[in-house]
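In this supplementary section we document a worked example of the pipeline. Step one takes a protein sequence of length 463 as its only input; no multiple sequence alignment statistics are reported here. Step two produces a three-dimensional model, which step three serialises into structure tokens for compact storage. The input and output of this example are shown verbatim.
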Amino acid sequence: MAITLQKNSLKKRSIDSKLLSEWDKQWVWHPFTQMSQWVQGDNLIIESGKGNYLQDTNGKKYLDGVSSLWCNVHGHRVPELDQAIKKQLSRIGHSTFLGLSNVPAIELAKKLIEIAPKGLTRVFYSDSGSEAVEIALKMAYQFWQNKGQKKKKKFVHLTNAYHGDTIGSVSVGGIELFHDIFRPLLFETLSVQAPYQYRDNFEGSEEEYTQLCADRAEAVLAKHSDEICGLIIEPLMQGAAGMIHQPKGYISRVRALTKQYNTLLIFDEVATGFGRTGRMFASDHEQVSPDLLCVAKGLSGGYLPISATLASEEIYDAFLGRLEDLKAFFHGHTYTANPLACAVSIANLELFEERQIFKKLPAKINFLRDQLNLFNTLDHVGDIRQVGLMVGIELVSDKATKRPYFLKEKIGIQVIEEARKRGVIIRPLGNVIVLMPPLSFETKELKKLTDVVYESIKKVTSE
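The serialised model returned by step three reads:
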């Protein structure tokens, strides 16, 4: 059965939105979605996009307030990115990376190492953020096994962590809402209480809070150092946890502690990488170099699925040996280092320099901060967390006691539905309203985004 396309008098394509919606509800299973509610709703179907806007099948335009789930960087239908894919497609769409290589994959690896934190020298490709993390975990584990330190098998992660949805990445996650049902399938890990100053009710200085959080990490590392093979964190901002930011100096302290207690440090920059925090990588804010770095989402500018795990030379060297030693890293997938995805990723990175992205970002970040200050006047905004263009607005039923809304109240869902009526697409994390616009947003678009979200929160929470 084919989608019915009709031609109007201007010979432009038109789509039967109602029919598409019926087909969607009949045959599609959406991620992170209670489908019993989805099939009852009037659901939005995106047909096209241009610049920082998306357009649905009825022709209505919406501001893309979450970068199409945190991945779009320079907007939609960017001529340079479109052309990069077309140019590569004229050569080849895909060939295996097992036993072969390809031109854009090699060129992209060189570019990634040039911009990555100092000390990372090798690039291992994959297809998603979850995979990039899965690979980092396996590399960290096998690193110690190859070096003969067989007891070092456990991983440390922060509470409320989210590193993906595959079994390994879920094992180092800590969000019960997503992960609890899979607990019997997961391997054993150790957890450190994550920074969450709003909920910790901490009233000292930032330096004192940083020390408190570092002490929590050291307590675990000191006790279990002989069995820990790696510690994984999202630096500066825990995304899916509810945009929870870490105090200044925290990632530097964690780096020092992992060196002191002889464990590997893994940074998951799937969400925080490629300009989201105001720098190319969140780790750049404190010049911290992890042993393994996971990137995805913004790597291709939000065009095609591709991810990478960057490793130090020390880790790479531990996998070298004779064929019969079986030290090689046995991991890989069919579309690893897909040439189309690598080609558009190269073009994406080139745009950072060509468009002087990092010169323009500070003014946008400051403007957004000023706009967010206005939200403090709302009765049900408990906390506002911002790092760069990453924002979490935590809604509470009672501001004085910080009492959260119940899940069944669906307060976050109500807010995004109201914003959608006003022409803005955002997505909540429970009671936290997330804003993460593309870096290409201008101040007028940031103004529209914050105005709409402000009015949407006000309307929903005052009713």
